[in-house]
Amino acid sequence: MLRLPPFRYLLPRTARDAARLLAEHGPDAMAVAGGTDLYPNMKRRQFTPKVLVGLRGLPDASAIAANGSLTLGAMATLADVAAHPVVASRWPAVARAAGLVSSPPLRNAGTIGGNLCVDTRCNYYNQTEFWRASVGYCMKKDGEICLVAPGSDKCWALSSSDTAPVMIALGAEATLVAPEGERRVLVAQLYGRDGIGYLVKRPDEVLTAIHVPDRTGWTATYRKLRRRGSIDFPILGVAAAVKRDAGGVVEDARVVLGAVDTHPVEAVDAAAFLRGRRLDAETIEMAAGIAYKPARPLDNADLNYAWRKRMARVEVARALRELAGLPTGDLPPVLS
User: Fold this and answer.
1) What pLDDT, on a 0 to 100 scale, did the predictor assign at position 111?
2) Could you tell me the CA-to-CA distances from 255 to 39, 108, 116, 133, 263 in Å, in that order?
3) What is the per-residue pLDDT for 332?
4) Is residue 335 scored above 70 in pLDDT?
5) What is the mean pLDDT of residues 200-225?
6) Full residue range of the structural domain in which residue 317 is found
7) CA angle 110, 114, 116 (to 5 degrees)
8) What is the DSSP annotation of 299-331?
């Protein structure tokens, strides 16, 4: 049995207090929300904090407010976001992404903020300490070499958030609270370009809320590829959002890929190609052919990386066909 290492648990009353505690204890401290990813990582000794700063008790931390725009308290559970009737009606891609994370018990504990900040993943990193020691560790934890790309000077652990691609596609912003104050940044600006320093936010900053703008006139969706239909992290995520005029011509578009790099990847060329065109079958296939090019899957996640690269094209096309009201080509569910 894997056991948690010893730690102190602190429960601040405000987000500013939480940020002060993180600053006071420095690298010995980590923030914890639902803990569905952090605690298993601690059991595997990927993290060994001496202090955990609990965020679930912060005032209004779990609130969901939909008044024109949508504001999600960062501690709102994924289950609550997925089941919220207004979110499901006006921001269905947000509800879908939240509802596809892991399994029902973990969605009841895991939070929307935690999923945005979830650790990057890799076959050589997400193992027990004994396993990692047997291969000499990796760059992300205790080693010096990225075992996926030994000649690389950066860690290639993959972004594994389901909700991040959707939030980026919808232009969402995040509120970060530090000891000296707070700031608001685009969710797209939260992520670095390295599997170790995957978050740009400071260690003493606390994510308190996510703000999704009013997207009236837009349609959006999220598709997730994984080996099993539940529990698994994505090996590909595709968020697509389009705004069309009365004649069906695309006025604006965004396509974001998840789990294909150390950070969510915006397919900006594909979005530019879609603008000014109708979402017909030919346009969709051409856009998908452009969108999959920035995907850089390596041998660091489930299933074959070359197949995952090809599936980026397939799933982008399926997402756009869904938005256009065309058949997606999905296999029918297996009935038992």
Assistant:
1) 98
2) 32, 29, 18, 39, 14
3) 53
4) no
5) 97
6) 225-324
7) 125
8) TTSSS-HHHHHHHHHHHHHHHHHHHHT----PP
Question: Residue-wise over 232-262: b if at least 16 C-beta within 10 A, else e?
Answer: ebbbbbbbbbbbbeeeeebeebbbbbbbbbb
Mean pLDDT confidence for 136-140: 97
Domain CATH for 20: 3.30.43.10
Q: Give the pLDDT of residue 252.
A: 98
CA distances from 95 to 82, 142, 171, 309 (A): 4, 37, 16, 26
Taking only the tens place, the pLDDT of each residue in 80-124 is 999 999 999 999 999 999 999 999 999 999 999 999 999 999 999
Q: In the sheet that 51-54 helps form, which strands lie side by side, from edge to edge?
A: 8-10, 51-54, 29-32
pLDDT in tens, 27-38: 999 999 999 999
Q: Are 275 and 252 in contact (CB under 8 A)?
A: yes
Write a three-state SS string for 174-232. EEEEECCEEEEEEHHHHECCCCCCCECCCCCCEEEEEEECCCCCEEEEEEEECCCCCCC
For the cut 70, the answer to whether the pLDDT of residue 336 exceeds it is: no
> Other CB atoms closer than 10 Å to residue 106's CB: what's the count?
17
- 3-class secondary structure for 44-91? CCCCCCCEEEECCCCCCCCCEEEECEEEEECCCEHHHHHHCHHHHHHC
Question: Rounded to an integer, what distance in angstroms lies between the CA atom of residue 128 and that of residue 133?
Answer: 9
Residue 249 pLDDT class (50, 70, 90 cuts): very high
CATH number at residue 294: 3.30.390.50
For the beta sheet containing 181-186, the strands, ordered from the edge strand earlier in sequence to the opposite edge, are 64-67, 69-73, 206-212, 173-178, 181-186
Task: Give me the chain's average pLDDT, please.
Answer: 96
User: What single-letter amino acid sits at 50?
Assistant: K
pLDDT of residue 1: 85
**Structural domain total, the chain:** 2
Q: In degrees rounded to 5, what are phi and psi of residue 13?
A: -95, -20
Joined together, the tokens standing for residue 169 give 């596609």
Q: Decide if 160 is inside a domain.
A: no
